[in-house]
Amino acid sequence: MSMWLYQMSQELWEPGQYRVDIWEGERWRWPVGKIVGDAEPKQGDTVVFYYAQTGCADPGFYGWAVITEWLPRAGDDQTRMYFRPVAPSDHLKMHPWWDKKAKALAKQIRGNMTQATLWPVQENLRDSLRQGITRCVFGQLVQV
Description:
It is a single chain. The chain is an alpha+beta fold. It has a six-stranded mixed sheet with strand order 2-5-4-3-1-6. The chain is globular. It has a single domain, classed as ph1033 like fold (Roll), CATH 3.10.590. The chain is built from four helices and six strands, in the order E-H-E-E-E-E-H-H-E-H. Helix 3 packs antiparallel against helix 4. The chain has helices at 15-21, 89-94, 100-110, 123-138, and strands at 3-8, 28-32, 46-51, 60-71, 79-86, 118-120.
């Protein structure tokens, strides 16, 4: 399965509203603008939600979810992603992961294209992203 980074826009949906609206276990549907690369997400992939530092007073990684459905653009309709947020998203939205490692990882994932909605997370960066979220939430890497 693949992992994706969804960059949210402070201008369109500020972090405070994200905190009010998004809860673990609920099903959501969001439009998807520009996708970097040729691949598309599919059911069962993971998506990580991120606010970039530019123009955002509280940047960082805010949560993650499982993609339950992907509806590519058809006619005049937008591409839509259905997803269900999972733990520890409720924690992350209150305490986003934002430190030097998070900033560097976001930069690696987005590369030179920082103005888009969705990026594939390179395979060699997935474990770093998972470990960073785990350390943010638990204060250490928890072995399973």
